[in-house]
Each structure stands twice: as C-alpha cells, then as structure tokens.
Amino acid sequence: MPTPEHMQAAVEAYVRALNAADLDAITALYADDARVEDPVGSTPSCGLNEIRAFYARSLRLKLQVALEGPVRAVAGEAAFAFSVSFEINGRPTTIRPIDVMRFDAAGRIVQMRAFFGPGNISTG
Amino acid sequence: MPTPEHMQAAVEAYVRALNAADLDAITALYADDARVEDPVGSTPSCGLNEIRAFYARSLRLKLQVALEGPVRAVAGEAAFAFSVSFEINGRPTTIRPIDVMRFDAAGRIVQMRAFFGPGNISTG
Q1: Does residue A95 lie in a domain region?
Q2: Which of the residues A63, A102, B24, B45 has an alpha carbon 20 to 30 A from that of A86?
Q3: Which ipTM value was assigned to this complex?
Q4: Catalytic site residue B32?
Q5: Domain-embedded: residue B30
Q6: d(CA A83, CA B70)
C-alpha cells in the first residue's frame, strides 16, 4: 500500500501538472485501468486513452489550481479540497471540488472521483 | 435521489449534533443498514447499534466541530472538510478530516467514510 507521503506527493504533482497544463505528467500518475468520475454522477472515463482525452478537453481552458487545506491521505486513499479558476468567454469562474483518489500497490491512481455540484461553481 | 439542498442540510445537522453531543440527532441521520468507516481503513461500524456505540465513544470527549469550506453535494453523495477540536489529558488536539457521505433515496446516510491520517492530527 502506498504511504501517506507518496500520496501527498502525488496530489501535489497532480496540482502542479494541472497548472502547467502538462498532459503527460497528469496521465503518468494514473494506472492503465484507472477510472475518473468527474464530476461524481457522470459517466467515468475508463483507461488511459479516455482519461487523457478527458484532461485534454479540460485543459483547453487555462486552469489555475490551488489546494485548500491539507491532503488527507490514509489506507491507500487520499482526499483533498481545492479550487480551479479559469475564464470562460471572458468571465472569471471558480469551481471548488473535493477529489478522492484511490491508489494501487504501485502507487498509481486507480480511481479518481471529483465531488462538486452547482453550488460549488461561482462566476464573477 | 436526495437533492443537494437536502444533503447540505443533513451535513449542517450532523455538525450541530456533534457540537451538541446529541447522540439521538446523529443516529437519526443514518439509515438502519448504514456503514461508518472512521477513519478510512478501519473496520466499519455496521447498522444503527454499532454506529450509535461508535458515536457514544467519540462523544466521551467534548467536541468542537466546524466546517472548513463549502459542502460538495452531487448525485446522492456529499463531501466536506471540517475540523474537530477537543482536549485529551489537558492537551488541545485538532483533527482535520474530509468526510464522504452517501445517501439513500429516503435522504438518510447509508455510508460515511472519514479521511484523515496522522498528518491531519495536531496537538498543542
């Protein structure tokens, strides 16, 4: 099982990769058979091809991502609150999700679920 | 499926009940066959009897509970960050978990998982 320190570092690498719009760095964090459900309730992206396509779509907008509070890492899973800010049609928008990631024995993410609803999206 | 507004209200009622040490109010939020895994990785408390016993143990200490940031409520699930402060042997202690709750069609919690590790516990 991956250590809390490993999961903490993976979350920080994920945030850095999102800010850098580095698709290779993002997908390198995921296991081949991973599932990404973002937001919770949507059809998951399954496997690296679908996951890469999902992030490629997300990164069409320039994202500014920042952790909010500590990463909670325990028993092969990590949860963390963060904000994602971007402009859409010149309008500043911020989403504040909580992501939950499950890791495999090799320390790669096998499941990511992003919790946010309409109440967690604000536009300026 | 319960609305985001219902789940938001349930989380706020949960925090109020913890602060009031109101065991009846806490267990009233749970379905009969609910599972509580607190922290993630521990053996879950299954069913209302075990859940009540779990909270009775937790409430031996006077808890001060506060939400940190918004509740993320979507598709029958809610995630939220919060802090729990108490004194143990005269020492102030704070834990900062993220809880994930899944609700049934009747709007009661059927699963609660509390994410926190050693790095999320601070003692003064």
Answers
A1: yes
A2: A102
A3: 0.96
A4: no
A5: yes
A6: 11
Q: Measured between CB atoms, does A43 come within 8 Å of chain B?
A: no
A69 exposure class (CB count in 10 Å sphere: 0-12, 13-18, 19+): middle
CATH number of the domain residue A103 falls in: 3.10.450.50
**Chains A and B: how many Cβ contacts under 8 Å?**
92
B38 catalytic residue (yes or no) = yes
Question: Could you say which residues from 9 to 38 on chain B have a Cβ atom under 8 Å away from some Cβ of chain A?
Answer: none
Q: What is the pLDDT of residues A26-78, one digit of tens each?
A: 999 999 999 999 999 999 999 999 999 999 999 999 999 999 999 999 999 99
Give the number of domains in chain B: 1
Minimal CA separation from B62 to chain A, in Å: 23
Q: Give chain A's count of helices (H) and strands (E).
A: 3, 8
pLDDT at A124: 78
Distance from CA of B42 to the nearest CA of A (A): 9
Cβ contact B115–A40 (<8 Å): no
| Through-space distance between the first and last CA atoms of chain B, rounded to whole angstroms | 42
Residues B92 and B62: their CA atoms lie apart, in Å, by 11
What is the reported pLDDT for A7?
98
| Residue B61 pLDDT grade (very low, low, confident, very high; cuts 50, 70, 90) | very high
